[in-house]
């Protein structure tokens, strides 16, 4: 009987020790590198000392103590409840929440619009494809900030609520904002019931994947499960006494009441970001699908698969490998671009931090907070992306 | 291996149109639906921009109830939007700058003129641009606070690219090197700058740099913004160059070293020429990104093209024609960037073709 050898009992020389591993990591010219490192540190220390001196001269104390002080400005809109007199930390928190709000909604809508446009570009219809092509060229060759300014100007030039443009009697466009029908549940805040519904649908889909992955009618079954989860949520909520209803905005006097109202600033930022990102996403989808060699299509057709099956079983799984990382980096771009909100008056993180810097003078700290939040988001996303890439690469090797 | 090159048969034009638009009933429906949607979107715009538009006159002509776009405004504020607050009698100087930039860009765009002689020419051009804008012996000095419009957009972009290039090259090499500490410093610099929005970098340049300088020292606002733009894009450019370095097979480096070249010679004579030529189209695309992103200078109060256009609509005589101003600026940006992106595509094809030979 052969016993498996443990690491310690393995014969031969042991692996490199920590010192020699550090040596290899540092590589050639260690002294010069160390010197460079010290110089960089000294540079930062010099600049930091100067900054601290300047701040003392202006009567400011460097540090984050100001975060707990009372703020004296209002924020136009926020997910977190906030009013002047709350702490600066809370104001910045409201800014972060606003950034996340526009980024999440923006990414979702941009994906929907971008995928639709990408498919339209590939549809084989000459008119539709060239229309989408010029849309993409127009958006990619003008600055995003200009697009945001233009959307903002357009929304502010809309008629007042009394003469608001309406579509299908339920969507209103006015210079006070955009009004959409909304789902509301009496007695529950939107965040609560929305997360319940999303969790239920996700759970249903995961369950479906476990049970039926690879079986026939997988897609219809998943769709059915998702619908079932929705129905279950509805029944549970109503039986618990929470009535769900669709609220349609309606004109009343000088204003529009009811429904979901988007402020002009949020609407302009959201539309601008979504339209801009949808152009890049449509290109990503198109190039991803075109990256699948035509031989794959032909082979699938020769096997007798239907066009929808070819797309779902052969082309998309391969295209998604190209599409996903690019898509995620364009989500990151959208998130970073949402910082342009400061130019059109939507109170996102950058805008609130800017106001904080102006009122307290603590510009350095405000910028450190901005940078820390965006860096956390970017690094977290790229860590997830590395994991995904490793998984995809492993699968690719496993297939060989 | 020789190969007979035969062009594939091409269907006549009307055939391709028919197949593209009405190959079947579904395709035909899509065509009609697209046409309807385009008309629905384009007709009101066409009415506003052409039929009801006011092409000449004063702001009073544009104030009538039925008036559409006020192109008379663009005519009246044309010079302001291009040159912002540059003193009007001296505006021939920024105009000359624009001509110089256009001429040099055209020459540099043609691969036949590519050589290292272009580098001193461009550096000299930047000096000439600076002298023309700022004024020198015999020319009235103009403070950078009065510079503005298209020359700012183009100069900041070009200087940004020019100064970012050496930094980016060093960063890309550092990130690839086997020196651990240098590599870490390069990675930290690149990832931090790529992870934050450009506006944060511009805020640092505007708000923090004046505080971080030793007391008494000061750097001009435009120059600070230029430094911010340069550092920000050097991180992106470094990644573009690194992608080029990665496609050079290691056999090339080994062959160069075995021929007795030093590491510097290997980089200069073997690796960099191939790597840089491979990424020229990507660099052109990045340059388009720089031109588009210089519009963020508007947020920190520098009068680039976008800010000049925005400000032109705050003139009390021509108040509030924002849409017209933005559309004009958009057309200028589009003309520059669309030309650039077509050029990049053309270049890519050309370089690929010469690679295959």
Give a structural overview.
The complex is a heterodimer of chains A (400) and B (357). Chain A has helices spanning 18-26, 30-57, 88-122, 126-140, 144-156, 190-212, 218-239, 264-290, 294-302, 307-337, 341-344, 349-360, 363-399, and strands at 165-167, 171-174, 177-180, 182-185, 244-247, 250-252, 255-257, 260-262. Chain A is of the alpha+beta class. Chain A has a domain at 88-157 and 272-399: MetI-like (MetI-like fold), CATH 1.10.3720. Chain A has a four-stranded antiparallel sheet with strand order 1-2-3-8. Chain A has a two-stranded antiparallel ribbon with strand order 4-5. Chain A has a two-stranded antiparallel sheet with strand order 6-7. The two termini of chain A are 34 Å apart. Chain B has helices spanning 13-22, 25-51, 59-62, 71-83, 92-109, 118-134, 150-176, 180-195, 198-212, 221-246, 250-258, 263-278, 280-293, 305-312, 322-356. In chain B, α4 (71-83) packs across α14, α7 (150-176) packs antiparallel against α8 and α10 packs across α12 (263-278). The longest helix of chain B has 35 residues, at 322-356. Chain B is globular, with a radius of gyration of 25 Å. Classes of the chains: A alpha+beta (400), B mainly alpha (357). Chains A and B meet through α2, α4, α5, α12 and α13 of A and α1, α2, α8, α9 and α13 of B.
Pick out its properties:
heterodimer; A: 400 residues; alpha+beta; MetI-like fold; four-stranded antiparallel sheet; two-stranded antiparallel sheet; 13 helices; globular; B: 357 residues; mainly alpha; 2 domains; 15 helices; 71% helix
């Amino acid at each position: 009987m052969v016993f498996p050898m443990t690491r310690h009992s393995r014969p031969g020389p042991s692996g490199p020790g920590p010192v020699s591993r550090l040596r290899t990591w540092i590589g050639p010219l260690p002294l010069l590198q160390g010197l460079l490192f010290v110089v960089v540190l000294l540079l930062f220390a010099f600049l930091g000392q100067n900054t601290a001196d300047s701040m003392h001269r202006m009567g400011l104390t460097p540090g984050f103590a100001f975060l707990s002080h009372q703020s004296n400005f209002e924020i136009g809109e926020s997910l977190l409840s906030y009013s002047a007199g709350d702490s600066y930390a809370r104001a910045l928190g409201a800014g972060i929440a606003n950034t996340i709000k526009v980024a999440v909604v923006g990414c979702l809508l941009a994906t929907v619009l971008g995928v639709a446009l990408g498919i339209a570009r590939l549809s084989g219809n000459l008119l539709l494809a060239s229309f989408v092509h010029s849309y993409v060229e127009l958006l990619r060759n003008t600055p995003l900030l200009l697009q945001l300014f233009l959307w903002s100007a357009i929304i502010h030039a809309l008629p007042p609520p009394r003469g608001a443009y309406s579509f299908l009697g339920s969507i209103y466009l006015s210079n006070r904002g955009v009004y959409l029908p909304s789902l509301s549940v009496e007695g529950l805040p939107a965040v609560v019931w929305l997360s319940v519904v999303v969790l239920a649908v996700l759970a249903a889909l995961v369950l479906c994947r476990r049970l039926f992955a690879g079986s026939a009618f997988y897609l219809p079954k998943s769709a059915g499960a998702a619908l079932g989860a929705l129905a279950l949520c509805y029944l549970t909520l109503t039986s618990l006494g929470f009535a769900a209803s669709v609220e349609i905005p309606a004109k009343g006097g000088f204003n529009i009441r009811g429904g979901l109202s988007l402020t002009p600033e949020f609407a302009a930022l959201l539309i601008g970001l979504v339209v801009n990102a949808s152009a890049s996403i449509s290109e990503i989808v198109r190039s991803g699908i075109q990256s699948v060699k035509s031989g794959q299509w032909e082979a699938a057709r020769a096997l007798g698969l239907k066009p929808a099956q070819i797309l779902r079983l052969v082309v998309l799984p391969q295209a998604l490998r190209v599409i996903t990382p690019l898509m995620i980096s364009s989500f990151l771009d959208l998130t970073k671009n949402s910082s342009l909100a400061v130019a059109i008056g939507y109170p996102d993180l950058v805008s609130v931090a800017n106001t904080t810097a102006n009122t307290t003078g603590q510009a350095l700290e405000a910028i450190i907070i901005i940078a820390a939040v965006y860096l956390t988001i970017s690094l977290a996303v790229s860590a997830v992306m590395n994991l995904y890439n490793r998984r995809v690469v492993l699968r690719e090797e496993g297939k060989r | 291996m020789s190969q007979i090159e035969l062009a594939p048969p091409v269907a006549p034009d009307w055939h391709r149109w028919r197949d593209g638009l009405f190959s079947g009933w579904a395709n035909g429906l899509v065509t009609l639906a697209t046409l309807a949607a385009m008309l629905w979107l384009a007709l009101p715009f066409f009415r506003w921009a052409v039929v009801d538009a006011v092409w000449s006159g004063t702001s009073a002509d544009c104030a009538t109830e039925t008036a559409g776009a006020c192109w008379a405004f663009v005519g009246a504020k044309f010079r302001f939007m291009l040159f912002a607050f540059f003193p009007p009698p001296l505006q021939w100087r920024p105009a000359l700058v624009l001509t110089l930039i256009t001429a040099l860009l055209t020459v540099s765009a043609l691969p036949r003129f590519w050589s290292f002689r272009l580098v001193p020419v461009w550096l000299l051009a930047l000096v000439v641009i600076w002298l023309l804008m700022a004024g020198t012996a015999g020319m009235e000095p103009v403070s950078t606070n009065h510079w503005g419009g298209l020359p700012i957009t183009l100069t900041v972009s070009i200087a940004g690219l020019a100064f970012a290039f050496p930094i980016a090259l060093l960063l890309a090499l550092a990130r690839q090197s086997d020196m651990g500490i240098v590599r870490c410093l390069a990675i930290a610099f690149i990832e931090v700058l790529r992870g934050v929005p450009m506006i944060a970098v511009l805020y640092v340049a505007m708000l923090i740099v004046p505080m971080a300088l030793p007391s008494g020292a000061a750097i001009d606002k435009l120059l600070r913004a230029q430094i911010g733009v340069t550092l920000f894009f050097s991180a992106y450019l470094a990644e573009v160059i690194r992608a080029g370095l990665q496609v050079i097979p290691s056999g090339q480096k080994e062959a160069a070293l075995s021929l007795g070249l030093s590491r510097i010679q290997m980089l200069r004579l073997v690796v960099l020429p191939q790597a840089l030529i491979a990424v020229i189209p990507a660099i052109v695309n990045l340059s388009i990104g720089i031109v588009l992103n210089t519009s963020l200078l508007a947020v920190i109060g520098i009068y680039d093209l976008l800010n000049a256009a925005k400000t032109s609509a705050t003139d009390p005589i021509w108040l509030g024609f924002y849409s017209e101003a933005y559309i004009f600026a958009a057309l200028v940006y589009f003309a520059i960037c669309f030309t650039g992106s077509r050029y990049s595509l053309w270049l890519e094809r050309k370089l690929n073709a010469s690679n295959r030979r």
